Amino acid sequence: VTRVVGSFWRHTDQLFVLDGATSAVVARAEWTGHPANRMRFSPDGAIVAAACGPVLRVWDAATGAPVAEKQ
What we know:
This protein is mainly β.
């Protein structure tokens, strides 16, 4: 399964996990604060992490549910 992760900033920050074959949104997460950069999947593809300014945020890649946050 090929997945792509990207982020978008408007009034809130958003992270999208897309199916690489269909471009369908698989999961989405929203937060406020710094925009996401340096986004990576875990080796098994189960979670996605992003550096958001001084904060490391981690989400479930299938649901977009927050898993952890570390400042």
